[in-house]
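Module 6 notes. Inverse folding takes a fixed backbone as the condition and produces residue identities as the prediction. Think of it as a translation problem where the source language is geometry and the target language is the twenty amino acids. Below is one complete input and output pair. Work through it position by position during the lab.
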């Protein structure tokens, strides 16, 4: 499950996470349902690889896109 987030909108959140801050936003769309509903307030905190586990929602950048992604499996360093 992934939800693409407009990059212009996500830039400020990513910068804040890199500064160690928590960010809150309301993603729109149904791809994360029932874990996260469209418009539900989500808080994202900075994390390190050791904290990531199956079932965790993460804000990730892949090439030029930013996604809210649900970790479904972990294989070595791939989530």
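Target side of the pair, the amino acids:
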């Amino acid at each position: 499950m992934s939800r693409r987030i407009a990059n212009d909108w996500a830039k400020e959140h990513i910068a804040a996470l890199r500064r160690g801050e928590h960010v809150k936003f309301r993603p729109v769309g149904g791809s994360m349902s029932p874990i996260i509903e469209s418009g539900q307030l989500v808080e994202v905190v900075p994390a390190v690889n050791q904290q990531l586990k199956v079932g965790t929602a993460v804000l990730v950048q892949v090439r030029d896109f930013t996604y809210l992604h649900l970790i479904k499996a972990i294989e070595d360093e791939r989530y």
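Reference fact for the lab report: The longest helix spans residues 7-18.
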